[in-house]
Amino acid sequence: MNALPVDTRPPPRAGRRRYLLCPPEHFAVEYAINPWMDPAQPVDRGAALRQWEGLAAVLRGLGHRVELLEPEPGLPDMVFTANGATVVAGRVLVARFRHPERAGESAAHLRWFTAAGFRGVRTATEVNEGEGDLLVAGPRILAASGFRTTAAAHREAQRMLGLPVVTLELTDPRYYHLDTALAVLDHDRIMYYPQAFSPASRRLLRRLYPDAILARAADAAAFGLNAVSDGRHVVLPDAARGLAEQLRAAGFEPVPVAVPELRKAGGGPKCCVLELRSEGGPS
Fold first, then answer.
1. Average pLDDT by consecutive 10-residue portion of the chain (283 residues)?
2. Which of 80, 86, 103, 178 lies at a C-alpha separation of 20 to 30 Å from 33?
3. What pLDDT is stored for residue 10 in this prediction?
């Protein structure tokens, strides 16, 4: 096996971040709105809560601030806070979910952001699933269409959040949100799974990010790209071992976590973490 290439650039630098998480107190798989969900498969809510607590502890241990959204009965997917909004420079665009099963999460996020004192909080008029499909990547937002968020929502996000939006098309239903197929590592570096995208989107990503980390099929299927990066530390599923090696060779510090219960609903570490970007910086 050939050795992985070593990145010779200066080491990535970590930034202190502020995140919104929601305990999976009502977590369940009661419906199927993505290929990973099977209501017939048993879910251990206690194990899900312990795994989520482990993720939250890791984020706090890395020096980040963790805020909590109160879980509500009847909304089993509220643990996936990343889908509920996108926050840029203190401006908040609250999601409008495609599936009625998750629609109530929008109001819960709207209440939290309003109570927390955020200004310019608006709910999307177009179907928009927050950081599931809108990933802030330095000077731009990478935005996906194909399964959940619409192309019209990309135009709305650009108007409301003040950053140019780059549209990408997802084509594999297993990677139904952008954050299952691509992760932002720092201001100008990403990692992604090329086969999740249309040929035109692959060409665009190659042009914008010629030095991106390309995930292998096994690591993508392990939800390795559903990762949280602070610019140096990359929190990702422990099953994505090959991707962890690639990150280490590129100068990042992989931080493996285990969240297999949450994966039964098609979620991983990033799905559980919504970044709260203030006007003064990334956190």
1. 50 87 97 97 97 98 98 98 97 98 98 94 97 97 97 97 98 98 97 98 98 98 98 98 98 98 98 88 43
2. 86
3. 65
* Domain annotation for the chain: domains and CATH numbers: 18-275 (3.75.10.10)
Query: Which tokens sit at 143?
Result: 């935005």
Question: What is the pLDDT at residue 281?
Answer: 44
Q: For the chain, first and last CA: distance in Å?
A: 40
Q: pTM for this structure?
A: 0.93
